[in-house]
Amino acid sequence: MDPHKVHELQAFVKMYKQDPSVLQTEAMRFLRERMESMGGVTEPDTDASQKMGNENVEITEEMTDQANDKKVASTEALNNSELQKATDLFTHAFKLNPHLGIVHAKRASVFIKLQKPDAAIQDCDRAIEINPDSAQPLKW
Q1: Comparing C-alpha atoms, which of 70, 108, 66, 75 is closest to residue 89?
Q2: What range(s) does the Hsp70-interacting protein N-terminal domain occupy (predicted)?
Q3: What is the domain partition of the chain in residue ranges?
Q4: In three state form, how does the secondary structure of the chain look?
Q5: Distance between CA 38 and CA 44 in Å, rounded?
Q6: pLDDT averaged over 10-residue windows placed end to end, the chain, 140 residues
């Protein structure tokens, strides 16, 4: 077998280990069906219950600053295609300040890329609750 193709396959397996939802895409349907025909199990999005933060927490100025720092770092991670890191940072941002609707909308965009539509819907719903005038959560 061509060593270059083996290397590409190894890279794909590494990516799959980091993000199993990659098999849920239409492009990977052939592989998902083959794995299932051999008894393998590929699971769809089941991450409907996401961490949202305590909306009753009293937010300090320090918490607001930290949340904004996490928001900036999460956007950087998203721009670098570090999807899990971006998700974790967005989550941390609204644990610090659960009233940042834009952060919920941004995390929803990451969940869409991770093929987790239920989680994205939950985040968009929360973003709309926080700011009904925001258009961004309606995109996802």
Answers
A1: 70
A2: 2-40
A3: 1-40, 59-134
A4: CCHHHHHHHHHHHHHHHHCHHHHHCHHHHHHHHHHHHCCCCCCCCCCCCCCCCCCCCCCCHHHHHHHHHHHHHHHHHHHCCCHHHHHHHHHHHHHHCCCCHHHHHHHHHHHHHCCCHHHHHHHHHHHHHHCCCCCHHHHC
A5: 18
A6: 90 81 82 87 61 72 90 93 93 88 91 85 89 82
Nearest to 84 by CA among 126, 27, 21: 21
pTM for the full predicted model: 0.62
Fold adopted by 59-134: 1.25.40
Query: What values do phi and psi take at 32, rounded to 5?
Result: -60, -45
